[in-house]
């Protein structure tokens, strides 16, 4: 196959990227961030004894969800959704919730709307699992895989109830994102550095700024999209990987929740991609795999229906 | 436990999330359509989803896993154990996946493990991976022995391995293979102890002087001991037993004389023996011929002997010179140095008593149902072995053949012949004096009730005809690739088991026996008796040195403290044989200081030696 053309195009992309970020001097960014936004705090690895202390021997809980689909493109597909809350205490049995989403059963209002509905279903299921975990697990803290932001968007009323429950029961909710998607810091930097016409996100701005085990806490008065929605967050570099992770907290729990930052750091493998291993374990167990979907759907949905509604023509390509 | 994955008629995979599998463990597979099937674990693996982990490209390090433990989560609990299980009997169609698997009870697998009762067979050890059967074991098989492992004595847990001695008639001869330190000698010792317990007549060739059974093993409970003092006799060549000279062929004599001395026999010496030795010679007729020839050669010529003959004073002397003349005429041309060499070698054998005894004592042992342990230097033993094996085997054979023909013959019992380093007696590729008789017994022995127990470090070097006749083989740790290959060829040891051979623990063995029809892993039991040879020579040395120091200290103690001025007067009070002069006294004192018996102190009178 001839790749020359593609290669040339990619080299141009590379060049363009380099020009875009030329103005971003690490040291300058660092000093602006430290000056205007907040100071980095060093986290420490906890000993077994300290871990038992901080968790009061009640273990921790990880919550995650997974979605996978069978079929073609909208609306001819079926999604299988699963969410899970898992405690580290062996006596506390895993909470697993499952749901099926069928766009053909919903009102027909376009693909974009469908996407939102689908996401909402999964967010709800995750919150439900976490909510059950609050009731039945003894842990004081619940780690959610991903940002807390999207719950308020996907399913505002459930999120509101959930938040209130967390505050009243005193269960600390922390969202841990490996992929930071905000641009709050970047926006401030753009003003400072007069880079108004370029597109900047936090992830590239923060790349390599923090040392391993450092957490960037923001000044209280700093305004961001998140703080407006009642969520406080900070950035943290948990492993050797220079990409930062984000921690999201419910505003009311912020101060108390920060106590768990050391624990999060302790539970993250040094060589890993920068999120606690427990969330990885939960992620692995909750995952709805392709084989699972295929074998479940093919053994339960009758063949005619599958052929008529679901099987995409492209799967018949050799 | 259940069957997982793709199965066939011979093999299945079994998984468990509770406990690991043991290699060679027997499992019961409850196949719904084919009933209970039995299988043996031939390979085990374990798998953990999280360690050494690569989930989504994430490497979990040990610190994080440790932290999770502090949170109450044990990653190890997520280990899955997998066993490859080979069915004992092939099934008609593949085993159904998902079949329940469980551990067996003793009665379900008894036929696979036990072929004899403890009082009729040799209790050699415990079959490995049978601990779970201990609970359901029948009383008869319980608590028969102790196991020695990692410096500790353990009671028997599991099924005993009992070698059915009676089946030797059908499947004769035992081979014991293994490198040094593999437990081979102990295996031999255990077999011999069991033979003694059953009063089976046995001859053991023991070049290392280690097969003594008088001492009981240290720390062994009274209950498990055995008193062997009346069941065996150590017979030393020269002292208790010897060769009847008239029975020796010229070749035997050559090997015997060759074995007797340092270095090999030279070609001319061999020539001397073969020319001078006559059939039916006694030691004295042969020795006289040699010494006359020597004397004649010293005289130097026929004429000089003739002169002596003429000057002889009496008939006896005359007769002597006459014979000398005759011998000189016949053999005078043989090189005199070689004649001398043969003569003194022969005399030294005589002085060792080799020709003054016979093997009556061995025969008596066998007739009494005892074990005769034949000891001697390895070179002499090698030659002597041929002689006794031949003799005893033919005695037994003559008796049996006589019975067959209806003749009344003197009873001679069936017996077992055991020896180590057997590749020296029956080597592959070249002939030795012992090889033909060993081969004959290997092939014909069972007809007459004569059985071999052959041990060797190098099965590859053992004659193939002999190896092929060893119907039961105990294989201990073997490192050499060529030997492993031989063992694989000569036994039903599986490739997986062969791979484990270099890593076997001392005292663990695979027993491959035609009696069982499959290979059984066994931990050989603790010997009831011990060889006095097992003391480490260095321990012995250190103990001796210590003893010497203590003695010196005791000698000097009454005279402490010793000032420089006292040395001379002290010297006079001491035993002159041990401390000769002032210098050696000072050296002795310094040694005692170094060892901490006394100490040196500065005083106004100079350095003084004081009690520590």
TrEMBL record, chain A:
<dbReference type="Pfam" id="PF09376">
    <property type="entry name" value="NurA"/>
</dbReference>
<protein>
    <submittedName>
        <fullName>NurA domain-containing protein</fullName>
    </submittedName>
</protein>
<feature type="domain" description="NurA">
    <location>
        <begin position="58"/>
        <end position="288"/>
    </location>
</feature>
<dbReference type="InterPro" id="IPR018977">
    <property type="entry name" value="NurA_domain"/>
</dbReference>
Automatic annotation (TrEMBL), chain B:
<dbReference type="InterPro" id="IPR027417">
    <property type="entry name" value="P-loop_NTPase"/>
</dbReference>
<protein>
    <recommendedName>
        <fullName>Helicase HerA central domain-containing protein</fullName>
    </recommendedName>
</protein>
<dbReference type="InterPro" id="IPR002789">
    <property type="entry name" value="HerA_central"/>
</dbReference>
<feature type="domain" description="Helicase HerA central">
    <location>
        <begin position="151"/>
        <end position="362"/>
    </location>
</feature>
<dbReference type="Pfam" id="PF01935">
    <property type="entry name" value="DUF87"/>
</dbReference>
<dbReference type="InterPro" id="IPR008571">
    <property type="entry name" value="HerA-like"/>
</dbReference>
């Amino acid at each position: 196959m001839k790749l020359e053309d593609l290669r040339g195009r990619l080299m141009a992309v590379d060049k363009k990227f380099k020009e875009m970020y030329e103005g971003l001097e690490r040291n300058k960014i660092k000093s602006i961030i430290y000056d205007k936004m907040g100071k980095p705090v060093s986290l420490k690895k906890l000993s077994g004894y300290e871990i038992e202390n901080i968790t009061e021997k009640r273990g921790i809980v990880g919550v995650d969800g997974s979605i996978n689909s069978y079929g073609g493109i909208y609306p001819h597909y079926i999604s299988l959704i699963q969410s899970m809350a898992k405690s580290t205490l062996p006596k506390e049995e895993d909470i697993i919730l499952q749901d099926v989403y069928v766009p053909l059963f919903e009102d027909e209002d376009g693909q974009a709307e469908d996407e939102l509905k689908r996401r909402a279903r999964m967010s709800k299921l995750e919150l439900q699992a976490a909510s059950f975990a609050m009731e039945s697990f003894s842990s004081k803290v619940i780690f959610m895989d991903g940002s807390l932001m999207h719950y308020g968007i996907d399913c505002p009323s459930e999120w509101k109830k959930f938040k209130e429950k967390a505050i009243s029961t005193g269960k600390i909710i922390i969202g841990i994102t490996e992929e930071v998607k905000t641009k709050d810091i970047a926006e401030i930097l753009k003003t400072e550095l007069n880079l108004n016409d370029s597109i900047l996100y936090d992830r590239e701005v923060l790349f390599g700024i923090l040392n391993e085990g450092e957490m960037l806490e923001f000044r209280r008065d700093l305004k961001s999209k998140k703080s407006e929605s009642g969520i406080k967050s900070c950035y943290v570099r948990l492993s050797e990987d220079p990409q930062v992770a984000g921690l999201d907290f419910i505003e009311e729990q912020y101060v108390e929740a920060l106590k768990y930052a050391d624990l999060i750091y302790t539970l993250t493998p040094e060589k890993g991609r920068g999120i606690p291993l427990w969330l990885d374990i939960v992620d692995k167990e909750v995952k709805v795999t392709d084989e699972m979907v295929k074998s479940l759907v093919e053994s339960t949905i009758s063949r005619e229906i599958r052929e008529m509604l679901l099987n995409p023509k492209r799967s018949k390509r050799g | 436990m259940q069957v997982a994955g793709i199965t066939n008629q011979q093999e299945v995979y079994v998984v468990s999330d509770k406990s690991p599998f043991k290699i060679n463990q027997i499992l019961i597979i409850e196949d719904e359509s084919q009933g209970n099937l039995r299988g043996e674990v031939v390979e085990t693996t374990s798998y953990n989803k999280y360690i050494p982990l690569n989930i989504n490209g994430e490497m979990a390090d040990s610190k994080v896993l440790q932290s999770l433990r502090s949170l109450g989560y044990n990653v190890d609990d997520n280990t899955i154990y997998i066993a490859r299980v080979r069915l004992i009997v092939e099934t008609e169609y593949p085993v159904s996946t998902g079949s329940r698997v469980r551990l067996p009870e003793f009665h379900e697998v008894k036929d696979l493990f036990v072929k004899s009762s403890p009082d009729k067979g040799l209790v050699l050890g415990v079959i490995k991976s049978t601990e779970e059967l201990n609970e359901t074991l029948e009383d008869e098989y319980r608590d028969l022995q102790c196991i020695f492992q990692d410096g500790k004595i353990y009671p028997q847990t599991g099924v005993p391995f009992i070698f059915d001695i009676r089946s030797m008639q059908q499947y004769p001869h035992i081979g014991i293979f293994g490198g040094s330190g593999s437990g081979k000698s102990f295996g031999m010792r255990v077999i011999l102890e069991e033979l003694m317990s059953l009063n089976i007549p046995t001859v053991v060739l023991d070049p290392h002087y280690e097969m003594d059974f008088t001492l009981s093993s240290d720390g062994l409970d009274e209950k498990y001991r055995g008193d062997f003092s009346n069941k065996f006799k150590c017979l030393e060549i020269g002292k208790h037993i010897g060769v009847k000279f008239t029975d020796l062929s010229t070749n035997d004599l050559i090997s015997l004389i060759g074995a007797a001395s340092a270095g090999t026999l030279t070609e001319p010496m061999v020539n001397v023996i073969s020319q001078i030795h006559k059939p039916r010679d006694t030691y004295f007729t042969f020795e006289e011929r040699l010494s006359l020839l020597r004397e004649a050669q010293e005289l130097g010529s026929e004429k000089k002997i003739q002169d002596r003959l003429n000057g002889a004073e009496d008939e006896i002397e005359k007769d002597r010179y006459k014979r000398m003349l005759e011998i000189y005429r016949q053999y005078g041309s043989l090189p005199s140095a070689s004649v001398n060499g043969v003569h003194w070698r022969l005399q030294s054998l005589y002085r060792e008593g080799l020709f003054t005894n016979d093997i009556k004592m061995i025969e008596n042992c066998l007739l009494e149902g005892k074990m005769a342990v034949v000891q001697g230097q390895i070179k002499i033993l090698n030659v002597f072995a041929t002689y006794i094996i031949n003799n005893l085997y033919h005695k037994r054979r003559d008796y049996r053949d006589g019975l067959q023909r209806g003749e009344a013959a003197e009873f001679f019992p069936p017996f077992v012949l055991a020896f180590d380093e057997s590749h020296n007696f029956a080597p592959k590729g070249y002939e030795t004096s012992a090889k033909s008789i060993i081969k004959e017994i290997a092939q014909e022995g069972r007809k007459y009730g004569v059985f071999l127990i052959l041990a060797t470090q190098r099965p590859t070097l053992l004659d193939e005809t002999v190896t092929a006749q060893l119907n039961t083989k105990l294989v201990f740790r073997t490192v050499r690739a060529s030997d492993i290959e031989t063992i694989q060829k000569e036994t039903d040891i599986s490739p997986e088991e062969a791979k484990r051979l270099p890593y076997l623990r001392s005292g663990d063995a695979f027993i491959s026996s035609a009696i069982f029809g499959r290979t059984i892993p066994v931990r050989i039991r603790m010997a009831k008796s011990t060889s006095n040879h097992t003391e480490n020579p260095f321990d012995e040395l250190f103990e001796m040195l210590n003893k010497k120091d203590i003695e010196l200290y005791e000698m000097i103690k009454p005279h402490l403290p010793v000032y420089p001025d006292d040395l001379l007067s002290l010297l006079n009070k001491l035993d002159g044989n041990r401390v000769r002069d002032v210098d050696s006294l000072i050296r002795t004192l310094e040694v005692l200081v170094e060892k901490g018996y006394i100490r040196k102190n500065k005083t106004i009178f100079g350095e003084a030696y004081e009690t520590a």
